[in-house]
Amino acid sequence: MSQPDIEIYVRDVNLEDITTWLAEVFDTVETGPVHGNCRYFKVYLAEKQIPVQIQKGASGKWNSIWFDSSGTPWDEDKSCGQAFNQRFQQPVRCNASLWQGDESNMDEWLHINQDGSEQLIQWPNE
Questions:
Q1: By Cβ atoms counted within 10 A, which residue in 11, 56, 81, 90 is the most buried?
Q2: Domain count of the chain?
Q3: End-to-end Cα distance, the chain
Q4: Is 75 helix (H, G, I), strand (E, B) or coil?
Q5: Any domain includes 43
Q6: What is the mean pLDDT of each run of 10 residues along the chain (126 residues)?
């Protein structure tokens, strides 16, 4: 079962590199507007449009990459985070569990280190 959307948090990766990664993963990338700290994109996979929002400093030094669709190549945040980490060897954070319709597991996060090792953390409370 896939999540209704995918969101990861990244550090030390600039917008140009993130855009390049999007172009590697998706068939087409269309750059959209900028509103404050947010850059919007539309990406396409098998002709299906997926809205993407990149928010700089969404949580301190962490930038959010949010795919507003269940039609991504990943079933959950962790798979997306692992793919991003493999590409850039940079830390990634994402929700550790599938969203279950309540917020009981929303404070349990997965931190993927530069070397790909993983650990559960409490975030943003750590």
A1: 81
A2: 1
A3: 30
A4: coil
A5: yes
A6: 89 94 98 97 97 95 96 96 97 83 68 97 75
